[in-house]
Design goal:
The chain has about 325 residues and is an alpha/beta fold. Helices cover about 50% and strands about 10% of the residues. Strands 2-3-4-1-5 form a five-stranded parallel β-sheet, with helices on both faces. The radius of gyration is 23 Å and the shape is elongated. Bound molecules: zinc ion.
């Protein structure tokens, strides 16, 4: 099933999305909901979930049972169809597995959908999940549809990289911006979900305060390996481990997460050298040893190298992972 459709229905907005939700509600109540919305914000901020909430509410046939805080009734025929992932008045397009782009054929299928009336007595909704992934021809085809989508019809474009989206598409949609909640708000949200504030702090520390990513990180089996990895990094500094051997060992872990993790650690090391508090307090002893073996300037160099590699992967690059890790650990072991 699509990533979007696997979101539990009825969806609810997150605590840090209440302003956006109030704005959408006001538009709905005054009958001024635009026909095209562009949701902008970083990966992991909850844009898909927010889109699902709005779609659920627009499709729901019992609006009187909805509450202003968000959430469709969850009981009507429409809500039940949404749970099954087969709602006839909802169309979701996103990059298919093993494909790099949203293709023009996927967008063309929307043409059929938009030319028909709603099958239930509500809205028709289209979600373009990852709008920046549209090929140029797909974006051009969508552009025409954005002009005249028809009555009681909403197109939602979800986008984490607005720079990759055609300006003409951007200008035809009303924008709604999402930003990451602050550390305290993330902590309040995450703590009851993971059981303890201690665990929530650790998870936020390894994911750079991204709450949804932090929740997901709880499932990472290798999270238990943090201490092992920290010791490996120390051993590389002390020349008691070989960069190539360490790279080989870590080849199997999710590289994007690993790099994000290393990036936040390097920020911690820089803080530690300035006598500031660190995020990963449980690793303090190892971090202190690492910090005594390396110059601050080198830590900046390393953090930049890690982050450049992270961006490369996050933006869809396909480097040789083993070579990438080898290069990184060789620099790490040699920096003054
Ligand atoms: Zn309903």
């Amino acid at each position: 099933m699509s990533r979007f459709l696997s979101i539990t229905s009825p969806a609810l907005p997150y605590s840090w999305q209440q302003n956006q939700w109030a704005q959408m509600n006001a538009s709905r109540e005054s009958g001024r909901l635009p026909h095209a919305l562009l949701f902008l914000g970083p990966q992991g901020v909850g844009k898909q979930n927010f889109a699902a909430t709005l779609v659920d509410c627009l499709l729901c046939l019992q609006p009187e049972k909805q509450v202003s805080g968000g959430g469709a009734c969850g009981q009507c025929k429409s809500c039940r169809l949404r749970v099954s992932g087969n709602h006839p008045d909802l169309k979701v397009i996103e990059t298919q597995e093993k494909k790099k782009n949203i293709s023009i054929d996927q967008v063309r299928q929307l043409g059929d959908f938009l030319s028909k009336q709603a099958q239930l007595d509500g809205y028709r909704c289209v979600v373009v999940n990852g709008a920046e992934d549209m090929s140029e021809s797909a974006a051009n085809a969508l552009l025409k549809m954005l002009e005249e989508p028809g009555e009681r019809c909403l197109l939602i474009l979800i986008c984490a990289r607005p720079g990759a989206l055609m300006p003409t598409i951007k200008s035809r949609c009303q924008h709604l911006n999402f930003s990451m909640p602050g550390h305290e708000q993330s902590l309040r949200w995450l703590t009851p979900l993971v059981g303890s504030a201690e665990q929530a702090k650790t998870l936020l520390a390894v994911t750079g305060d991204a709450p949804l990513k932090a929740l997901e990180a709880q499932q990472w089996a290798w999270l238990d390996q943090r201490e092992v990895l920290a010791n490996q990094l120390l051993a590389l500094r002390l020349r008691t481990a070989e960069p190539l051997a360490v790279a080989k060992q870590l080849q199997g872990v999710p590289t994007e997460e690993l790099l994000l993790w290393l990036y936040h650690w390097s920020l911690d090391w820089i803080k530690l050298q300035q006598n500031l508090n660190v995020e990963n307090g449980d690793l303090l002893r190892i971090f202190e040893e690492i910090c005594s073996s390396i110059k601050t300037a080198s830590l900046f160099v390393f953090s930049e190298e890690v982050f450049a590699n992270y961006l490369l992967l996050a933006q869809g690059g396909n480097p040789n992972i083993l070579l990438l890790l080898e290069g990184l650990f060789i620099s790490w072991s040699q920096l003054p």
